[in-house]
Request: fold
Amino acid sequence: MADALETFGTVLKADMPRDAVHIACISGQAQERLQPGQHVGYKNGVITTAGDKIGVIDPFISGPIKFGERCWIFLYPRTVTGLRHAWEHPDIKSEESDVEEDPKWDRSKPWESPAGAAEYIAREAINVGVSVPRLMDGARNWITTGQGMYMGEQEEWLMDEEKFWKAYETVSGQKVREDQYESFFRCAC
Reply:
C-alpha cells in the first residue's frame, strides 16, 4: 500500500490509513500579494506567481500574505531528493545560501533590486488606485517642483514612503533627497 507522501497531489481511490510525512519547504519573501495554498515559484529568496511553479504557499496561514512578508512554500511532493530535513530540488540552489550572489540584491529589501523595485511600484500603484505612469509622474513632479499629486477626496494612503522612494530611485535612476521621503499625495480637503 502506498503511503501518504506517494499519494499527495492526487485524488485518492480508496480510504488510506493515517500517516505522518516530511514535506520539503523553503521560506521566501512575497513579491506580490499571495494567498494560502496558492501555487508559486521561487527565485533568489523571492516568492512569485511568475514562471515555473514549485510548490504552494503555506496553506495553514489564515489570511493573505502581503508584499514583502515572509512565509513558507511547501514544495510539490516527489520533486525533491534526499528528504532528511536537508534536501535538494532542481530549481533551488543547494549551497549554504539559496540566494545567487548579486551585489545589488538584498533579500530583505526586494524593492531595491531592479525587478523588485518595478514590482513594488506596480503594487503600490494598484494599492492607491492609479496607473504606474501616473504614480511615477506624480513622484517626479513632487521631487522637482514640490507639488503634490491630487487624489480627490481620499485622505489616507497606505504606503511606506521610505520603501517607495528607494524603489523609485532604483527604477528611475533619479536620486531623491531624504527630506522628500514623504507622501506626495494631496486630497481636496
